[in-house]
Amino acid sequence: MISESLITERGVSAGDEWITVPAAQIREALAALKDDGYELLVFLTCVDHLADASRNWPARYELVYQLRDMEKLRDIRLRAFIDGDPPEIDSASDLFPPANWDERETYDLFGVMFTGHPELTRILMPDDWVGHPLRRDYPVGGEVVEFSEEHELWQTAPDEA
Amino acid sequence: MASTKITGTEGVTITKTGQQGAFGGELLTVNFGPHHPSTHGVLRLIVDLDGEQIKRLKPVIGYLHTGIEKQMEALRWQQGVVVTDRHDYLSPPINNLAYALAVEKLMGVEVPPRAQVLRVIMSELTRLSSHLVWMGTSGLELGAMTMLMYCFRERDTILDMNEEISGFRMHTSYIRPGGVMADATPRFLDLLATFVKEMPGHIDEYEDLLTMNPIWRARTIGVGILSPENAKILGATGPMLRGSGVAWDLRKNMPYSGYESYDFEVATDDACDCYGRYLVRIKEMREAVRILDQALNRLPDGPVNVDDRKMLPPPREELETSMEAVIHHFKLFTEGYTVPPGDVYVAVESGRGENGCYIVSDGTHKPRRVKFRSASFVNLQALERMAMNHMIADMIAIIGTADTVLGDCDR
Question: Rounded CA gap, A156 and B74, in Å?
Answer without folding.
Answer: 6
